[in-house]
Each structure stands twice: as structure tokens, then as C-alpha cells.
């Protein structure tokens, strides 16, 4: 919700503040996966973790 609000209303200022507005969680289970160690699990390539749960894993 806030991600879209930021994209719509403060793209320039958010980018200037260092926020990557393209960094998102694309899977609905990211919160649960992160709580169970997904973000640090080297079994999954970093690009996969970034693409699926980059925001919550702080990978982008």
C-alpha cells in the first residue's frame, strides 16, 4: 500500500533519500519465510531471494 503511495506521490524525493522504489516482496509468504531464516539461507541464490523477498530481506 505505502509502496504505491510513494511511487505515486514522492518518486523524486524518495529516490533522493536513497529508497529503491522497485524493491518489493513478490511472494505473499515473505514475512513467514524471513522469520524462518530464508533471507540468510545460502541454499537459495541471492538473486532468487532478492526477486522474491528483496524488501523484507534488505537485499535491494
Automatic annotation (TrEMBL):
Database matches in Pfam families: ShK
Q: Which InterPro entries match?
A: ShKT_dom (IPR003582)
Ranges of residues in domain ShKT: 23-60
Q: Domain of life, per the record? A: Eukaryota
- What is the protein's given name? ShKT domain-containing protein
Q: Which organism is it from?
A: Meloidogyne javanica
* Lineage, highest ranks first: Eukaryota, Metazoa, Ecdysozoa, Nematoda, Chromadorea
Amino acid at each position: 500500500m505505502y509502496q504505491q503511495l510513494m511511487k505515486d506521490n514522492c518518486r523524486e524525493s524518495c529516490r533522493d533519500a536513497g529508497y529503491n522504489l522497485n524493491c518489493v516482496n513478490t511472494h505473499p509468504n515473505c514475512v513467514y519465510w524471513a522469520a524462518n531464516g530464508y533471507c540468510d539461507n545460502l541454499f537459495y541464490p541471492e538473486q532468487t531471494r532478492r526477486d522474491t523477498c528483496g524488501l523484507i530481506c534488505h537485499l535491494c
